[in-house]
Specification:
Number of strands: 16
Strand order of the largest sheet: 1-2-6-7-10-13-14-15-16
Radius of gyration: 22 Å
Order of helices and strands: HEEHHEHHHEEHEEEEEEEEHHHEEHE
Strand content: 25-35%
Helix content: 25-40%
Largest sheet: 9 strands, mixed
């Protein structure tokens, strides 16, 4: 009897000493570092649910890779041959959504430009700094591939333009955030933070405080600003500091303007924060691209997507921020930020 009471006392003592904490799970997927942080008391449960998310990331990476063999490259091959292809329900839905986003953003975000991305050498993990062949670049621009060329009927996809080559690099991270959030919620996780190379979504809180994240400074290894991220919110940044090379003193980023075929130079970074809504993760990724490429016209682009929280760092380092987002930000060092409506 005394032994039973002693064991019970030890169990109660261990329970009393148990403290909730953040369990981090990292991997390298989508060409970047990902981190799934689960807040709770049970490490085994956190490990199990985070592992399910990382398996899903790996599946998406393999299914929709733009240059290694995948369902997407098989579709691209069919389009190049002038043939229709039967794709998964998921890919058909992704393409329809990306097509709608492209139309909303005046085609500045256009996943049909995979051929252009390849010409600039960004279809590799170790790209060589070089400008594309001018004749090939002009030929591609003359062909004018766009998402509007796709005809999607159920699971059947074809293109009116054989120059269309799909690259979901500007969409996949946001979509993966939404999938991760769905998996965590299905598993009963209510407090977590998912970070895919700077695209971040929050679930719940970190104890009695909201999750807190930083917006990367595009020209310094430090946050430009920090802010709380609340349940169901997502934030994403497009910047010229993520994938780029320098040649003859000029920076060439992977964010390519479909109007010119050239990397855009008017903006260093463009951040959007999406308040809780359906597909918040996706909206934190794809819509930042047309706003980035629009340069001084960035505010019109974010309005088209119903986004009120955004920050832009212009090519000359000027910081512009919407009134809604400025109220949330804390700057670690003094920054002159122009507040815009």
């Amino acid at each position: 009897m005394l032994r039973v009471l002693a064991l019970a006392a030890c169990a109660l003592l261990l329970a009393a000493c148990s403290r909730a904490q953040v369990f981090h799970h990292e991997a390298y997927v989508f060409g970047t570092r990902v981190d799934v942080a689960v807040y709770g008391e049970n490490q085994a449960e956190a490990d199990r649910t985070a592992a399910a998310v990382l398996r899903e990331f790996d599946r998406l990476h393999r299914a929709y890779h733009a240059w290694e063999p995948s369902e997407l490259t098989a579709l691209n091959a069919a389009i190049a041959r002038g043939e229709a292809a039967t794709v998964s329900e998921e890919l058909a839905a992704i393409l329809k959504d990306a097509q709608a986003i492209a139309a909303t953003g005046d085609g500045l975000f256009d996943p049909a430009l995979g051929g252009l991305v390849a010409l600039w050498g960004f279809h590799t993990d170790t790209f060589v700094p070089q400008r594309p062949d001018p004749d090939k670049l002009q030929a591609l621009l003359a062909a004018r591939p766009s998402m509007a060329d796709l005809v999607i009927e159920g699971n059947r996809v074809e293109s009116r333009n054989p120059a269309v080559q799909l690259d979901l690099g500007g969409y996949a991270k946001g979509y993966a955030l939404d999938r991760a959030a769905a998996i965590l919620r299905e598993q009963g996780v209510v407090n977590a933070l998912i970070n895919i190379g700077g695209n971040v979504m929050a679930l719940g809180r970190k104890g009695d405080q909201p999750w807190r994240i930083g917006i990367q400074h595009p020209r310094a290894p430090a946050p430009l600003a920090t802010l709380p991220l609340y349940d169901g919110e997502a934030i994403g940044t497009s910047g010229d500091y993520q994938r780029y090379f320098e040649l003859d003193g000029e920076r060439y980023a992977h964010l390519l303007d479909p109007r010119t075929g050239q990397p855009a130079h008017g903006t260093q970074s463009l951040t959007v924060l999406i308040t809780p809504r359906a597909n918040a993760g996706t909206l934190s990724d794809a819509p930042s691209k047309p706003a980035y490429l629009a340069g001084e016209g960035w505010r019109e682009q974010i309005r088209r997507f119903g986004i009120e929280h955004a920050l832009r760092v212009a090519a000359d380092g000027r910081v512009e921020v919407t009134r809604a987002l400025r109220a949330r930000l804390q700057f670690p060092s003094p920054v002159e930020a122009a507040v815009v409506d």
